[in-house]
Design goal:
Elements lengths: L4 E7 L4 E6 L6 E6 L3 H6 L9 H17 L5 E4 L8 H11 L5
Parallel strand pairs: 1-4
Antiparallel strand pairs: 1-2, 2-3
């Protein structure tokens, strides 16, 4: 069985977080969230971090960071969250940025 890194997602009422975890599950290779100062600044700093466009930005950023760390393929772990809205936007943006699920 070939093991691949995992793209995990967590969302709260205000923020969405994404992390790429190594195949053995012991190391975070890349992460991004709407709680980051750079992301909030790019969104306009108006406090609107809980929307689909913010989730798409996080998906793009985590994909870019993962590719910089040498990760091309991931398994998508939605952690029980429904695959629609924020989670779907994050996943689609990560795919468009070059991550393979």
């Amino acid at each position: 069985i070939q093991r691949v890194a995992r793209l995990t997602v967590f969302r709260s009422n205000l923020h969405i977080y994404a992390s790429v975890i190594s195949d053995c599950g012991t190391k975070v290779l890349a992460s991004a969230s709407t709680a980051e100062k750079d992301v909030r600044a790019e969104l306009g700093g108006n406090g609107k971090c809980g929307n689909v466009s913010a989730a798409a930005l996080v998906g793009k950023r985590v994909a870019e960071k993962a590719k910089a760390a040498g990760v091309e393929k991931v398994a998508f772990d939605r952690a029980g969250f429904a695959y629609h809205g924020w989670v779907k936007a994050l996943a689609e943006a990560a795919r468009e940025a070059g991550l393979q699920f």
